[in-house]
Amino acid sequence: MIIDGVNLGHSFKTVEEAVTAANVRCDVDEFSYITASRIVCRTRQSPTPIPARYPVVVKLREEHRYTAISNDSFTYVDPVIKNMEPTKGPRFGGTNVTIRGENLDAGTSVNIFLSGVRCAVLNRTNDKVECRTGPSESLTDGYLKISFDSFSREYDNVRFRYEENPTFAQVIPERSIESGGITVDVMGTGFKLLQRPHMIVRDEKRVMKGPQCNVIRDDLIFCKTPSLEVPHNRRKHPTADEPLLLSYGFELDGVRTEDISQLSGFRMRHLAVFPDPVVEKFSDVRFYRSGDYLTINGKYLDAAASERDILVTVGGEPCNLTALANRALTCQPPPEKPKTQKFSYDSDPDVLVKIGGVSYRVGYLSYSMKGAGLSPHLMGAVLIPTVCIIGAFFLLLIFYRRKSTSHMREMKHLKNQIDQIEMKVATECKEAFAELQTSMNAMAAVLPLGTPFIPFLSYKEYTARVLFPNNYHNHPVLRDLEVDSQRAHAIEMGLRAFNKLLMNKHFLLSFVRAMENNKYFLGKDRVSVGSLLMVVLMEKMEYCTEILKQLLKELIDRTMEKRLQPKILFRRSESVAERMLAAWYTILMYKYLTECAGRKLYELYWAMKQQMEKGPQDALTLEARYSLSEEKLLRSSFDFRKLTVFIAADHHSSGAMDYPVRVLDCDSITQVKEKCLDAKYRTTAFSDRPSVNDLDLELRSACPRIILQDIDSTSKVEPGGWRRINTLAHYNVPENATLALLPRQASLYNLSILSERSTFSLPKQSPTLTRPFGTTSSSQCKGLLSNMDSNYKLYHLVRPSEHGSSDQQDKMVTEIYLTRHALSFHSLCTLGIARNLLLTMKGTLQKFIQNLLEVIFSAAAPNSAIRCVKYMFDFMDDQAREHGIEENEVVHAWKSNSLPLRFWVNLIKNPHFVFDIQKPTKLEGCLSVVAQTLMDACSTQEHQLTKDSPSSKLLFAKDIYQYRDWVDRYYAEIRQMRPISDQDMNALLAEESRSHSRDRFHIFSALNELYKYLEQYKESLREELDMNQFAVNQKLPQKFQDMLNTMECVGEHYSNGGGGTIGSFGHRVYRGRPREEDRV
């Protein structure tokens, strides 16, 4: 206690025992005593609480006149601590701690310790003490200790914990402007401990500190960059192309961190400081109209700033930013004129732009109508033309009414003609359908009783074509693996070990994961690996299904974790699982195809082919008069005749009749040969027929007999270097002519056009030529005159240049058929030429298309295929529930993508995958339209149709709703079926494996192809196995290494040039399959 006054004794001895405070002795400090003017004493402990207030008494003697009593009172109090906040802070200190209680201002001084570390007092009142923590050498959790002068007290119930200092992981963006104020996201840990974080930037010897950051979460704070105030004498100033790169850090509660931009993991490692943006002022007052946007021009607007750093106000109210670019920003002003601002004399609110820490006044925005307050003269100048325009409008309206009456009469006449044409088209469709059905029944009738006329491929050929569509004739799995006889045993042991590993679930899943996690594992590789795995696992379909379900589950998990669009799953083969799913359906649906659905598909193919061949088809462009595809529609009109010719029977067929064939006189010779082969061998599979390129066509009605050829010496050269392919009309072949198919004499007749070595070409400007010349697989496009002058340009029916003039007119014809828009009488007359176009083809084939779709989406007849579909669809339903997917459209899309779109669409577009027929290149356009109709039927989205919509959608616009009902009913019926248990499914799959045990591929060849992939990703697979505890427990890493050692030993001595481990050495063909014990 310090007592100041006068006459306070003349020596220490006189005052040594003279002072009392609240009747308690106060010990005088001899060294602090100042004679007669100041006494410093230390109070003694009060024996009892003294709540009352008493004065301080200085009694030099017992006499009253030597006694002084203070005006101020003194009392003994007991400090009480109620609470403390916060109760934790970073180890480097700087945390402001507030202690609340009573009588906290007792004593002369106070010292506070938290967890044994001094806390510097900042402020003290009766009920509150504020202090700032010091740094701690360790992570501690201790009590509060307070010393009031020399008296100390510990509070065990009030504790403070030092925690790890905050850490920084990333700062985004690392950009700013000279004026600062740009918000950056700072990510790290421990930010909730901070109270006063600031961003600091170092520029040479200067340190600039930004405003206090905003702590959002424990791992995120928002900081604004400081203003640099770059001095004029600085050697380098920032530009848009070369910003200043400055070091930066943070001041956390008064403690500055190291240069944070130099820490590892930061992208730019410096803060890039750009010049302040330039905002252009308005050249004049801008006018606002309802719904308008305000555009403000400038430069470098988005060099460092983002939308959250920019604030545009109109009259003090925000203008919502909608777009930001380097040289302009756009915002939406308030819909009404702001009323909060004190406007200037013109009452227009001003527009302010604030970017970071710099503000711009760019001009004024007027809410008045532009042109308001016009002079009477100007109003008259505007009003008179307006009245004239209105008068002219009424005159035009009267003229239009008269004209429309005449137009309506003409439209009624046109409608009657269109109705007549449509009735004619309908009649033709019925007649064509009846003819096709009769022809099909007749073809079946000529066969022996019980003989099927549908040329189904064998199970092995069918699966080969679907699994390996680009190489189904010569894929390695279709032949034995050729190895050196001396190494055959070693190779067999290595591949058997590999097969045994593949039969282990953990190894196979790790194998697939290791490949798919590699970014160089391309889409075509995923398809190939998926197909090869199905070849290896075909004999264990139950194990194959277990693996497939796990891979599909992981694929769905990845899609949901990455928040990708789940509806596109299974639409494309972008993973091994998706390819295996398509192949799984392929294998299990074969029986359903041969017993039921395949017949309807073949009937559609056969009907489509027969109907298309009734009209002309260009041998080069493949455009046809009868087509479902507008792109493949032959629009040009020309005269042609239908002929019936006879193909002479073979000499060795005694008593055989000549075969009648319907042809067109505009058919090329190769097209005629194809039709003759179809008639003569109509019940023979395509692979058993002679090739059209191995036969010549002889006209026997002529004298002497002549060989008909696509190109020969009689072919005429036309202006422009064109040469037309020969037709029956070129040779003047008459009705009922007799033709003969003779083996081609290679030395004399190598005269077929369109060879694979062809150098003839068509001009690229042909709008209807959708396939490059010579790339079609049709038999009429398989050979070319080797000694012909390559300067000639070939065409068949129409020169490519002749298409351009009629495209627009033909498009109008198509639209009349599809949308029934009214046209002029001249355009309507062209319907007589084109009446058998799209609608005729659609009407003829519609019953066949409906039959196919009905059998595809039918669950009425229970069979193994439907049970497999039920099993897989239930799995997809379970996955949707597991991931909380409540949208029915998502599961609908999964089912549609996996079965109709990946399986049925593939077979519709490629019927030669199922039947032993010629590759249907000529029918590609029509088959694609049917496939597209199937896809539209499976879609849940509504498409608004207009006259500009694709013709394929317009053709089936009325039917698509019925087809969608079939799809929904099909999915509903399958959902309502009794669930298939895993035991029942495994029994069904085992039976499926046994039923095709003789139709297997060459497993060693498939294993060899898979091993080539394994070699590329063996290191990734090794890591995957080492991290899989189940694989380690089963010693799979060691077994994998043993297999590699065996195979690599073989590869060192006998590696082929193609980079594979096992090649074709030609000394001995090893034929064999993995033993049964290797498949377990």
From TrEMBL:
A GO BP annotation: regulation of cell migration
InterPro entries named in the record: Ig-like_fold, Ig_E-set, IPT_dom, Plexin, Plexin_cytoplasmic_RasGAP_dom, Plexin_RBD, Rho_GTPase_activation_prot
Pfam name, any one: TIG
Transmembrane segments: 378-400
Entry superkingdom: Eukaryota
SUPFAM superfamilies: E set domains, GTPase activation domain, GAP
First and last residue of the signal peptide: none
Chain segments annotated as coiled-coil in the UniProt record: 404-431
GO molecular-function terms, A-Z: semaphorin receptor activity
Annotated ranges, domain IPT/TIG: 1-77, 78-163, 165-269, 276-368
Keywords: Coiled coil, Membrane, Transmembrane, Transmembrane helix
Gene Ontology CC, one term: plasma membrane
UniProt-recorded name of the protein: IPT/TIG domain-containing protein
